[in-house]
Design goal:
It is a single chain. The chain is of the alpha+beta class and about 60 residues long. It has a single domain, classed as Arc Repressor Mutant, subunit A (Orthogonal Bundle). Strands 1-2 form a two-stranded antiparallel sheet. Helix 2 crosses helix 3.
Length: about 60
Amino acid sequence: MNDRQRKTIEYLKEHKRLTTKEYSNMFNITERMARLDIKELTHRRIIKRMGTSDKTAYYVLAEI
């Protein structure tokens, strides 16, 4: 897990939800890189995707 991903977990503990665009803006990275980081976190079941389409998708911490 990289530093951005660790900071994202802390961010979600406080703010409860995050979009790909917010993630890319937080770390000044491309949305493609943001999606790759988020994909890894969802694959590890640390966060989960909510929303029905790409335009309305956001991410929350997965329940343990």
